[in-house]
Design a protein that fits this description.
By secondary structure, the chain is α/β, with parallel strands linked by helices. A hairpin with a 2-residue loop joins strand 9 and strand 10. The two termini are 34 Å apart. The model has no long low-confidence stretch (mean pLDDT 93). The structure holds adenosine-5'-triphosphate.
């Protein structure tokens, strides 16, 4: 099977000279199509940096990052913007919804820019929020807002869905529902999901776990039988 993602000798340094911080130092791994991957690590380990590089939000300093045949290091700013728009869905810890647009309009923002988009109401239905289509974000709970953010990301029908601490602002039960949506999305659609977290207790739900420490890969392992989210305890 060809790899969906190949990362070779990836380095990301912020700043220059005495102020330089190397957040990713010689990172190497591959991800196969359809895997749900968890990137684990302590605060400051370099996880968000890696996610930003994979999502084309930040350029790499050196090395090779290839996603679905696209070599990200070869893209200029314009190329990276197109890559982000067409191929990547993002979910952040604090939802990042547009407050003066309704739920369905927030989802349409994403579906309008993608080539192979899902209908916005279909995406809202997938996260169980079709009845809230005409509400504004402030009228929804935190968990519901995160579900809108996931609907927005999956509406693009992205090859790659990236989530940075997506349950960080949610209570336990709501967090579980959110993780279930990610597991369903990757296993039902065969798409790739990468979740960045410091919570090692959720790692058994993943097909693939990459642990980062001090900007390097500390361990890289695969679960043959990932735990269904409903059975996870943390
Ligand atoms: N834009 C930036 N400019 C300078 N240094 C940065 C920048 N972004 C991140 N860093 C540094 O790079 C290192 C890794 O940060 P990163 O955010 O990738 O870690 P993380 O594992 O995601 O941490 P957290 O879980 O706390 O978000 C840290 O030392 C951080 O201070």
């Amino acid at each position: 099977m060809t790899n969906f993602i190949t990362v070779e000798n990836e380095v990301k340094t912020y700043g220059q000279g005495a102020n330089a911080v190397t957040a990713n130092q010689d990172i190497n791994f591959t991800i196969e199509p359809g895997e749900l991957t968890i990137i684990l690590g302590a605060s400051g380990a370099g996880k968000s940096t890696l996610l930003n590089v994979l999502g084309g939000m930040d350029s790499l300093t050196s090395g090779t990052v290839k996603v679905n045949g696209v070599e990200l290091g070869d893209l200029d700013q314009r190329g990276l913007t197109t890559y982000r728009r067409k191929q990547v869905g993002f979910v952040f810890q604090f939802y990042n919804l547009v407050q003066n647009l309704t739920t369905v309009e927030n989802v349409e923002l994403a579906s309008e820019i993608a080539d192979d988009a899902m209908d916005a109401v279909t995406a809202l239905t997938a996260v169980g929020l079709e009845k809230r289509a005409n509400n504004f974000p402030a009228q929804l709970s935190g968990g519901e807002q995160q579900r809108v953010a996931i609907a927005r990301a999956i509406a693009k029908n992205p090859d790659l869905l990236l989530a940075d601490e997506p349950t960080g602002a949610l209570d336990y039960h709501t967090g579980k529902k959110i993780l279930q949506l990610f597991q369903d999305f990757s296993h039902k659609s065969g798409k790739n999901v990468i979740i960045v977290t410091h919570n090692s207790l959720i790692q058994s739900m993943a097909d693939h776990v990459i642990e980062i420490a001090d900007g390097r890969v500390k361990s890289d392992s695969r679960n043959e039988t990932p735990t269904p989210v409903a059975q996870l305890e943390w």
